[in-house]
């Protein structure tokens, strides 16, 4: 089977790519709306882009050309929280993708509790085992549908007690979920451990060197 990319419309391309780029972790983003309420939505086009300072990136699409509430809130306030849900939060994560007017708080609708931010004004989701308080860094547009890649600098890591072992997250205990194609999710399968491959140490470079 061969598919020529320019023959596909945006929906067909999305359907194809979201089944190819799998499994995807989920950034469950809380942000503040104009009324100071907590907006909450899941985003699986998500990764980290820098270690020092720690930075993450999320691709946020548009709804028929209009920016999603999360993107608007990030641009308006300059901060947001990436919460990481576990298997127990799957239904809430999925339901928080429902489209609501900007003044509706999905966190409130879903009966989730929030905790105040420490470094930023955006609250985090209390039920989430991990939350990253982020300061908005920049957004870069890609393609023809108005999608933008939002990058944020992590200022504070909140990690549930017991999840951190020797500086590393105990993934088995975290029980993360991931998105695959369609309204489908998966949890961790068996973990296979291999010999660690030695890597040259990461260092901080001078700002003007490449
Ligand atoms: C698991 C999951 C992952 C999603 N990932 C993305 C994504 O990466 N980018 C995106 O624009 N929308 C994504 N969506 C759709 C948004 O969550 C949805 O458009 C939501 O209504 C946006 O809410 P907001 O308008 O409050 O920002 C995803 C939905 C689900 C259920």
From TrEMBL:
It comes from the Bacteria. Its cofactor is FMN. GO terms for molecular function: FMN binding; oxidoreductase activity, acting on the CH-NH group of donors, NAD or NADP as acceptor. Gene3D superfamilies: Electron Transport, Fmn-binding Protein, Chain A. The keyword Flavoprotein applies. Keywords: Flavoprotein, FMN. The keyword Flavoprotein applies. Residues 19-171 form the Flavin reductase like domain. PANTHER family: FLAVIN REDUCTASE LIKE DOMAIN-CONTAINING PROTEIN, FLAVOPROTEIN OXYGENASE. Belongs to the flavoredoxin family. This is Flavin reductase.
């Amino acid at each position: 089977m061969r598919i020529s990319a320019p023959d596909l419309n945006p929906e067909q391309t999305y359907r194809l790519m979201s089944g190819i780029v799998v499994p995807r972790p989920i950034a469950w983003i809380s942000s503040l709306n104009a009324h100071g309420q907590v907006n909450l939505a899941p985003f699986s086009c998500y990764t980290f882009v820098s270690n020092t300072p720690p930075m993450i990136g999320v691709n946020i699409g548009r709804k028929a050309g209009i920016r999603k509430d999360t993107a608007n809130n990030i641009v308006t306030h300059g901060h947001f929280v990436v919460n990481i849900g576990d298997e127990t939060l799957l239904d809430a994560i999925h339901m928080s993708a429902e489209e609501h007017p900007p003044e509706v708080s999905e966190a409130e609708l879903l009966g989730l509790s929030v905790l105040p931010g420490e470094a930023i004004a955006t609250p985090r989701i209390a039920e989430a085992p991990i939350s990253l308080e982020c300061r908005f860094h920049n957004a870069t547009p890609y393609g023809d549908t108005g999608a933008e890649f939002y990058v944020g600098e992590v200022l504070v890591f909140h990690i549930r007690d017991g999840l951190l072992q020797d500086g590393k997250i105990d993934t088995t205990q975290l029980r993360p979920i991931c998105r695959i194609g369609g309204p489908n999710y998966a949890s961790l399968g068996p973990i296979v451990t291999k010999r660690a491959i030695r890597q040259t140490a990461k260092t901080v470079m001078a700002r003007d060197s490449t």
